[in-house]
Design a protein that fits this description.
- With 133 residues, the chain is α+β, with helices and mostly antiparallel strands.
- It is built from six helices and five strands; from the N terminus they run ααββββααβαα.
- Helix content is 45%, strand content 23%.
- The protein is globular.
- 28% of the residues are buried.
């Protein structure tokens, strides 16, 4: 049975996949990366889910309930589902950003993409969605 995207179970599976992937959590741990990330659908007022990262490790995840976010990423249903099925690379994310398929309601994605320490793990974290059944 498939896990519903942006459910509590889904975001916690993503948190576990994040922590198990050294190219994401390991690289961000070396960078001392701390943040709170939200994700959801473009037309919603609030994101659906959030997760908190401390020194590269996802330490908390769940349904969004007013947490202060450093990043709030939004896309439409078809885009999220395509990424969950097929993944997306850094070039694909760049195209999604320039065409408006991926929007940031909060956070400076340009600064992140220009920082090689963050850009690689950022693009790889989207592919973690493929691991969620």
């Amino acid at each position: 049975m498939a896990v519903e995207m942006f459910s509590d179970e889904w975001i916690n599976k993503l948190k576990d996949a994040w922590n198990a992937d050294p190219e994401v959590s390991g690289a961000l741990e070396k960078a001392g990366f701390d943040t709170v990330i939200g994700a959801g659908y473009k037309d919603d007022n609030d994101p659906r889910v959030f997760f908190k990262v401390v020194k590269g490790k996802a330490v908390e995840a769940g349904l969004y309930n007013g947490q202060k976010l450093d990043w709030d990423m939004r896309a439409n249903t078809d885009t999220w589902e395509a990424w969950a099925k097929d993944g997306v690379g850094l070039t694909g994310l760049g195209v999604a950003l320039t065409t408006g398929k991926l929007k940031f309601k909060t956070g400076d994605y340009a600064t992140m993409l220009k920082n090689p320490t963050l850009a690689g793990p950022f693009s790889k974290c989207f592919n973690l969605m493929q691991k969620i059944q």
